[in-house]
Amino acid sequence: MTAEPTTDPTTSALEGPEPDSYADAEQELETILEALEADDVDVDELSSRVARARELITWCRGRLRTAEVTITELLADPDD
């Protein structure tokens, strides 16, 4: 007996647009990080960039947790 895949409530907590995929979220995070490391972010924009990065990290963690649960369920009983 397999349970329904779990959806993480953090995946709907984004204030900005939801990424199309984990790879897209990772790319956006990389872009934010590069801008922060290069000091290319205006002070007025800094807090919104950091907030967006935090949202994306939370979203990615939710996707990873969901994938982990799904994989664990699939591997738990190969006879189902």
TrEMBL record:
Please give the biological process terms from Gene Ontology that the record holds: DNA catabolic process
Provide GO CC annotations from the record.
exodeoxyribonuclease VII complex
Q: Where is this region: Disordered?
A: 1-24
Q: Give the enzyme class.
A: hydrolase
What spans are recorded as compositionally biased (Polar residues)? 1-13
Could you say which EC number(s) this protein's record lists? Answer: 3.1.11.6
Does Hydrolase count among this protein's keywords?
yes
Sorted alphabetically, the keyword list is: Cytoplasm, Exonuclease, Hydrolase, Nuclease
* Keyword check for Hydrolase: yes
What would be an example GO MF term here?
exodeoxyribonuclease VII activity
Task: Tell me which family the UniProt entry assigns to this protein.
Answer: Belongs to the XseB family.
Q: What is this protein called?
A: Exodeoxyribonuclease VII small subunit
